[in-house]
From TrEMBL:
It comes from Naegleria gruberi. One of its GO terms (molecular function) is ubiquitin binding. This is WD-40 repeat-containing protein. PROSITE patterns: PFU, WD_REPEATS_1, WD_REPEATS_2, WD_REPEATS_REGION. Residues 520-533 have a biased composition (Basic and acidic residues). Pfam families: PFU, PUL, WD40.
Length: 610
């Protein structure tokens, strides 16, 4: 008896959302041991495995036949097909990259400078390299030809590792800035991409070729293109095709902002993931589909079964499919689309209903060259600038951030899709010459935060933090540089750029390794980390009265009973066995009262229980 092949959909559609991380989902890879299985790494310092529930369709059918209450039925319908099967805890800082290592392992790299190899069958760590690098591990890849682990770091080096050895096999040094992506190719070739915009080739631990200006900004991702060579993606928004001889034979302006990940589907289609909250799918240089997300998309990967999966800054991993039999139910898809729409509304800060239409704007003339007006384009606020020479309105782009429309708006400056009170011209040494960069700043922003973002966006060294912050304070009105209340973003979300010497117009730069700027950087970085910690850990430290003593055995018993009850109502919200073990360890530590360290993993379990 033969079974007819399923006719695939023309575009990818949401199959499932994987919700369980409590911070950004930063990296993702396929788990080929399970059909459709994935592994994720997060800023919450955990690695999780996910798999489709084989009984999902049957359970959904039973729900339809047995539930009649509207709200309860809708909640049941929204249960994801995918379930978290394992949570692996071991890294002390957030995870930057993961990859699958045959036959049943996954290796993770972290900002804590370490690499850990995990057994994805039972979640146990089987090998650890505590100080794999002298700075954060920024990327890793498993060479599919040799199963060699290749890691890259902010220490400007790449290293190769083998599972049965305790030390690095080789160290690849030569980049001037952070190594941000690595890839093993056939014939023992390794390529590395860096914050200095270059791509280097290595064989037997030696540099064999250097593409010094492969991109105009950081190289963020590399992917083999079978039969041709490889692809590279960059902060400059482009994806380039290269031969193994280092010749560029193709170029796509894939996005208008940072491209974090590039992938090649078995069909030959190219997938790109970007800061602009989209995954784009390309056939040659033609865009064939755009998949919007509620947050920045850190990575996209192809799964062996033909599906694709993404890691997103909204803490969720997602699986998309062309198989009509696997598509998520309409309620889940609607919720996903609603989240995308809400993220746009929250981001822009502009109420489009109060704006004129694009058609109405085109029927009016501007009053001065460069005048900016906002319009409502199908519910999305967009900015237009008056072109006096051609007597027409030029579209600048969609508004992705900024205050509401009000007095003084027309005096603000539109830059990179956002409105700013100031956009300074800053002259920097770039290569062998000078280049003018734009430094955007809004009233009330912390000058140090604005300086840090400028460093990230324009590839400057951290030792210039103080100089740039002082530049802002010197050139903006004094009352405009008093920081308002804010919640700090994560300082390590990938915007670490290459370094160039910088100077203010009319002054000479003189960077030194003993610069006092580094002390300000340390102070600033500690403030960022503390604000982020307070943002994520909402129950600690306690700000109300606490008990000096507690019945920890009783507390643990009640929590376990509660967890069992949750399993029967919504298993996706229940603690996993590994998390129950972590909770037991925490109660043991607190009961002993001997000052043993309570880790982020312990706190994360309490946060989930809460």
């Amino acid at each position: 008896m033969t079974t007819e092949a399923t006719t695939l959909l023309p575009d990818y559609v949401l199959r499932a959302e994987c919700k369980g991380h409590i911070d950004q989902c930063r990296t993702i890879c396929a788990n080929p041991l399970v059909d459709g299985g994935i592994v994720t790494g997060s800023l919450d310092c955990t690695v999780k495995t996910w798999a489709p529930n084989p009984n999902y369709k049957e359970e959904q059918t039973n729900i339809e036949n047995t539930m009649f209450d509207g709200e309860e039925l809708n909640n049941a319908r929204k249960q994801s097909e995918y379930q978290c099967s394992l949570t692996m805890v071991g890294h002390e800082k957030f995870i930057t990259s993961i990859d699958y290592l045959p036959d049943h392992y996954v290796v993770s790299g972290s900002h804590d400078k370490s690499l850990i190899v995990w057994n994805v069958v039972d979640g146990t760590p089987v090998k650890s390299y505590p100080n794999a690098h002298s700075n954060a591990v920024s990327c890793l890849s498993v060479d599919k030809y040799t199963n060699t682990i290749i890691s890259g770091s902010w220490d400007k080096s790449a290293k190769t590792w083998h599972f049965d050895k305790d030390a690095a096999i080789s160290e690849l040094k030569g980049h001037e800035q952070n190594v941000l992506c690595v890839l093993g190719l056939q014939n023992g070739i390794i390529i590395t991409g860096s914050g200095d915009g270059s791509i280097k080739f290595w064989e037997n631990g030696k540099e064999t070729r250097d593409i010094a200006a492969a991109h105009s900004s950081c190289v963020r991702s590399l992917k083999e293109l079978p039969g041709i060579g490889f692809l590279s993606a960059s902060n400059d928004g482009t994806v380039k095709t290269w031969t193994l001889q280092g010749d560029c034979i193709g170029h796509i302006q894939a996005h208008n902002t940072l491209v974090y990940s590039v992938e090649v589907a078995p069909s030959g289609e190219i997938l790109t993931a970007s800061e602009d909250k989209t995954v784009k799918i390309w056939r040659g240089d033609s865009l064939v589909q755009t998949i919007e997300h509620p947050g920045c998309v850190w990575q996209v990967v192809c799964l062996p079964n033909g599906d694709i999966a993404t890691a997103c800054s909204d803490c969720v991993a997602r699986v998309f499919t062309k198989n009509p039999e696997k598509v998520a139910n309409p309620l889940i898809i609607q919720s996903f689309n609603d989240n995308i729409a809400n993220s746009k509304k929250k981001k822009s800060g502009v109420d489009p209903t109060k704006l004129t239409t694009e058609l109405a704007l085109q029927n009016t003339k501007g009053t001065s060259d460069g005048e900016i007006k906002l319009v409502n384009n199908s519910g999305i606020p967009e900015a237009y600038s008056w072109n006096a020479a051609q007597q027409k309105w030029d579209k600048l782009g969609e508004i992705t951030d900024g205050p509401g429309v009000g007095d003084g708006f027309s005096q603000r400056t539109f830059y990179n899709g956002k409105m700013y009170d100031y956009v300074f011209d800053v002259e920097l040494e770039h290569g062998s010459g000078m280049k003018t960069f734009k430094l955007p700043y809004n009233k009330g922003d912390n000058p140090y935060f604005a300086a840090q973002q400028f460093i990230w966006d324009n590839n400057l060294g951290q030792n210039y933090l103080e100089q740039i912050a002082r530049f802002v304070m010197d050139n903006a009105d004094a009352h405009d540089t008093v920081p308002s209340d804010f919640v700090a973003g994560d300082p390590y979300t990938g915007h670490q750029r290459e370094t160039f010497a910088a100077k203010r117009p009319g002054t000479e730069s003189n960077p030194t390794t003993s610069s006092p700027f580094s002390q300000e950087q340390d102070k600033y970085q500690k403030e960022l980390e503390e604000r982020e910690r307070q943002k994520k850990v909402k129950h600690f430290p306690a700000t109300t009265k606490v008990f000096d003593q507690a019945n920890y055995d009783g507390i643990l018993k009640k929590l376990n009973e509660f967890n069992e009850n949750v399993k029967t109502s919504d298993a996706s919200l229940a603690l996993l066995p590994t998390e129950c073990t972590t909770l037991t360890q925490l109660c043991t530590i607190l009961k002993a009262g001997q000052g043993e360290k309570v880790t982020l993993a312990h706190v994360a379990v309490v946060e989930k229980d809460a």
